[in-house]
Amino acid sequence: MLRTLRVTRELQLPERITSFPKEYREDNLGQFFEACYDSERVLFSTFLLTGFREQEVMYLFWSDINLQLQTVRVTAKPELGFYPKRWEERQIPAPAELIAELQKHTRRPNCQFVFPSPTGNREQHMLDRCKAVAKRAGLDPAKFDLKTFHPTYASRMLRQGFDVRTVQHWMGHKSLETTMRYLVPATDVHGKLDQVKIPVKIPAPPKKSPPRKSPARETGSARKGRPARFRSGKHQEQ
Fold first, then answer.
1. In this model, does residue 116 exceed pLDDT 80?
2. In this structure, is residue 149 part of a structural domain?
3. Is 184 in contact with 155 (CB distance < 8 Å)?
4. Residue pair 51/171 in contact by the 8 Å Cβ criterion
5. What is the DSSP letter of 215?
6. What predicted TM-score, i.e. pTM, was given to this entire model?
7. Which of 13, 85, 55 lies closest to 146, judged by CA?
8. Is residue 101 part of a domain?
9. How many Å apart are CA 171 and CA 153, to the nearest integer?
10. pLDDT at 234
């Protein structure tokens, strides 16, 4: 047994490859939301603009939303068997656009859920609705799911300039390293990237030859000062 452990430790095993988190592109999101009906738009806007996980949206109560303070909370619902990840409740600020969508959203009478099922219980078909919207938008439904809204939210917040620790709290991450994974390179960069060109040698300007000096014209006083034999331009013989 000890020999086996010693041999295993000496093996040069490859390290586990960490892939980039998957996120939605801005143009695909535009297509997606263009194809949403009103009830779908507010649902998936909540995913996109809060970064909430599927269960956190499923168990979202109207009491978790403060329209005046523009905040949304993740709270435990022991009576329904729901507890936040790592048992930690959290509150995040909501963008004005999301608050406006929630204000327009129809509230079902005698129902605590923000997004109830047709019978007034938990909505457990959010993923099916997501894929239906993607298909309607002409996108690949296989590439659309609910969990990808979570890393998309993190990447968008970090690119907007929010510091990592703030985003860590909003995401409900225990480790700062987990949040740092979402500092991925931007994907919509080709507009600026295409402006980067291969340097071209600039031809040197042609050398200018120095200007030729024209013979100076003598003034009258200069001619008077010359000997008489040079005034006529001929030498007189002695």
1. yes
2. yes
3. yes
4. yes
5. P
6. 0.71
7. 55
8. yes
9. 9
10. 47
